[in-house]
Design brief:
InterPro entries: 4pyrrol_synth_GluRdtase (IPR000343), 4pyrrol_synth_GluRdtase_N (IPR015895), GluRdtase_CS (IPR018214), GluRdtase_N_sf (IPR036343), NAD(P)-bd_dom_sf (IPR036291), Shikm_DH/Glu-tRNA_Rdtase (IPR006151). It is built from 14 helices and ten strands. The protein is an alpha/beta fold.
Length: about 400
Amino acid sequence: MKLCMAGIDHVSAALEQREKLSLVRGQVQAVLPRIAEQTGCAAVLLATCSRTELYLHAEGERVLPDAAEVLCEAAGAPACRPFLVQRTGGEAVRHLMQVSAGMQSQIFGDDQIVSQVKDAAALARELKTADAVLDTLFRRAVTAGKRVRTETRLTGVPASAAQAGVRRAERFFGTLAGKRAVVIGNGEMGRLAARALVEAGCAVTVTLRTYRHGETVVPQGCATVPYERRMERIEGADLVVSATTSPHFTLTAEQTAALSHPPRLLLDLAMPRDIESAAASGHTALFNLDDLGELGDADNAARETALRILDEETREFFAWLNYRAALPLIAQLKSAVASRVRHIRDYDALVADGDAETLAELAANRAVELVLGGMKQKIDVETMKACLEHIGKGSGR
């Protein structure tokens, strides 16, 4: 199997390096077809707030390229090359399985990553950059992630970055009940944060872009303010959360310095970052994604169960892969067996007489002998029972 991946995440690099390789959906749509065309490989790009990973698969005689170099060039960040980790073959498969289960996430047990893995595969499918191998791999990884969530519990605290951020804010303030919060951004992460803040007892205001008023869904219990007037609500607020895909800062040091009563806490859930680092001061604390990684954990039993599930799904993928690789040989085997069956003694006479039942029995016996004759070292009672059961089902019995 010619499969490789290269990626950067919270383990291999700090936030400053990761955000240079951060890609939003529109950027992925632009670079992924170019990657597939230039490399001649099938490609899927997984880009989230804490990781960017490129998966490549090559068929036939084609040679896999340096995936790290390809990713850095596509993102326009060659200086990030030393921070990327590369994996090939089974190691890449097992890594994706663990990623989808949230076991490689910055927030351990992250419950958002499985949908992000699914979306990455769907986008590659839409762009026609995925092939059967990558598509099946990502489908199996999504199945693995869902099984881990339904069959075990990896974490005893909220798992998404938004919920983890709110939990960190609760620790900072002691309680969020009665606090005033402003959430900048009404995408998925912003809505999750807003809902969690409302549930914690905050009075929440969500910013809306004026031109998107008719397209957005505001979480229940939240007030709204146009993005352009956000500083009016930030004045005197206790907490500001920013979670946008903007390429520019949503909150700068100059803006916070101009406030008479700046917030006590700034929470930046964006990648790349939304809030300028200098916006923090003696009065105002700032947490970003790299400050949220200690809120999830798993006991040994839950971890072992999760790893068992991932091993099962990994084996299923390789079983499919092996069967796929064997298909040309299976076709050859069918042809060879058919050719040998035609040399059965009395074959022509039976065909002429129309004795279909006898002919079928002779052909079946000969076919079984020919196939099993080359597999004597692989045959056991349980395998034969499984074959009989499968044949019985196939005949309607």
